[in-house]
Amino acid sequence: MRVIDFKDAKCRHCYKCVRYCMVKAISVRDEQAHILKDHCINCGRCMEICPQNAKTFASDMDRVKGYLRQGFKTIISIAPSYIGVLEFDRPGQVVDALLKLGFAEVRETAEGAAMVTNEYKKIIRENKMPNIITTCCPSVNDLVEKYYPDCVDLLAPVVSPMVAHGRYIKKLYGNDVKVVFLGPCIAKKQEAIGDERVFGAIDAILTFEELSIWLEEAGIDIYACEDKPMGNPDPKVNRMYPISGGVIQSVVTEEEADTYHKVYVDGLANCMEMLECLQRGELEHCFIEANVCEGGCAKGPASARWNTSYVKAKVKIENEVSYKAARNLPEMSTQELAKAFEDNHLTDRIPTDKEIRDILKSTGKYSEEDELNCGACGYPTCRDKAIAVYQNKAELSMCMPYALTQAESMSNVVMDVTPNMIFIIDSSMKIRECNKKAQELLGVGRDEAVQRYIFEFIEAEDIEETLRTKEPVIHKKIQLEHGRMTAEETIVYIENLDSVLVTFQDVTREEKIKEQHYFLKVETVKMAQEVIEKQMMVAQEIAGLLGETTAETKVTLTKLRDSILNEGEE
After folding, report:
1. Does one domain contain both 299 and 368?
2. Are strands 204-207 and 431-434 parallel, antiparallel or unpaired?
């Protein structure tokens, strides 16, 4: 299952998604970005930062609507982050809105969080793990399994609150019931549908954004709904799970003292730094709450449309939470809540140093000094980008400095080899740019030319007129070099520069050839006229003898003469 991808024909060479993807799970092929499913941890960062709105993600909305149409008993497990994200007067209005859509019951995922909390407490009491990483965030779990396999044994062998809740609901109502998770997280889609270890606990995933669309389609206004209760007992402090440090607060509530140091880490960069510390053995006996999203799950990537600040969401959640341990909540066995994590590390091909150097050379980098490491391509160094090219994740053209150099080089080649004289003249008549042929016309180098005005060298009335009227001059014959050169003048106004592009095409040779050809025709016509006159005298004598007219003969010969003279002038 591919949870996230990009729309074709939407990319604009910005490589912002590559730059912000810290695990580099994005390939660029034929100038189009694609998600590398095996590499992706579904954090959704690329979706948040894409300036072209080119991202797409899999939607289960049609599947959920199908469950309801077919009459399946369908129960919503709603993430407690709804308190901080959705807009309402009273939380119970969200419950009523979901019931109006056709769901049989609405229960809080925090109910599953309470079960997970109990399992974390058991692990802490056992005191067997050197460090414990919470496993509520599926992106963190993927990060460890794919990129930090040395830390797999440090993941708490417990399912996420979503999976725990789904399993409990199906245990409570039977396997025929359909369970739909509603929350702000995209990674939950991959966890629910794509992870065989927990398959069957959750039947579909809806995001808060999808819910908003559905409610609008159904004409349901949350503010007009009744305040109805959840279908579960109050999970109390376990509603804090979406907030950074919320898992720790749930674990330590009314709990006996233990030897584990409690620490929470949020944000992908911080999570990666934490895992690197664990790999180096720098952390001991820590209980680590880890979330890929900064601030926890209070604002996931699928809740961006509300544009609510994390602080506001945090305050709203905290105001609805009782800081007491949950009571009278159902329990499930450790076996029912267990999950075995695996080493799923990636095995990308690694190029040799020679292969890296060859790729670098193809983008004009022959030494370390040529490696700018500017990051414009999305990779931190030129060598990293070269490795990505070798692995078919990146294209050579993604190197912006090289592409710019190539473009400038090609432009300069065109400018330098063209036989035409080319100028850029600004509104003050100052020369802003000129090619080599133009410099030959002026008799000065470029450095001096761009410091002077065009009227210092040539008559510039046409240029001045185009700057004033913005009307072009096309292929106008003029004289340059005091009449020694005939040129075709073309002047075009450049709006965004308030300047004109001036081109002089030297047509002196062509004009001389035309002139010579004309003189040749004149001489030919002169000879023809002489022949006509002689022939007319003879014709008149003969006509006199025969009594015939010479008019037709004269007309014919005159037409022949005129056709020679006018040849090629149309």
Report:
1. no
2. unpaired
Residue located via tokens 């003469």: 561
Name the pLDDT band for 402 (thresholds 50, 70, 90): confident
Specify whether 115 is located in the same domain as 192: yes
**Same-domain pairing of 77 and 156:** yes
Nearest to 192 by CA among 58, 286, 11: 58
Asked, for residue 17, whether it belongs to a domain, the answer is no
- The structural domain count of the chain equals 4
Domain hosting 385: range is 348-409
Kindly report, residue by residue over 446-492, the tens digit of the pLDDT: 889 999 999 999 999 999 999 999 999 999 999 998 888 999 999 99
CA atoms within 13 A on the CB side of 289: 25
The answer as to whether 494 is a domain residue is yes
Q: Where a domain ends, among 384, 409, 434? A: 409
Same-domain pairing of 92 and 157: yes
Supply 133's token pair.
């990483």
> What residues form DSSP beta bridges with 77?
107, 181
On whether the CB atoms of residues 84 and 316 are closer than 8 A, the answer is: yes
379: left (phi over 0), alpha (psi -120 to 50) or beta: beta
Phi-psi region of 308 (alpha: psi -120 to 50; beta: other; left: phi over 0): beta
Q: Is residue 229 located within the same domain as residue 128?
A: yes
CB 532 within 8 A of CB 549: no
Distances (CA, A) of 90 to 109, 212, 351: 18, 17, 58
Task: For residue 258, count CB atoms less than 10 angstroms from its CB and return exposed for 0-12, middle for 13-18, buried for 19 or more.
Answer: middle
Dihedral sign, Cα of residue 306, residue 205, residue 93, residue 222:
positive
Tell me the three state secondary structure of residue 518: helix
CATH of the domain at 454: 3.30.450.20
In terms of domains, do 129 and 232 share one?
A: yes
Q: Who's near 159: CB < 8 A, 6+ residues apart?
A: 116, 135, 167, 198, 201, 337, 338, 339
Write out pLDDT tens, residues 312-369.
888 888 888 887 887 777 789 999 999 999 999 988 999 999 999 999 988 888 888 8
- In angstroms, the CA 429 to CA 451 distance is 11
Tell me if 191 is assigned to some domain: yes
Residues 300 and 158 in one domain: yes
User: Taken in order 293, 294, 298, 300, is the CA torsion positive or negative?
Assistant: negative
Let me know whether 263 and 217 are in one domain: yes
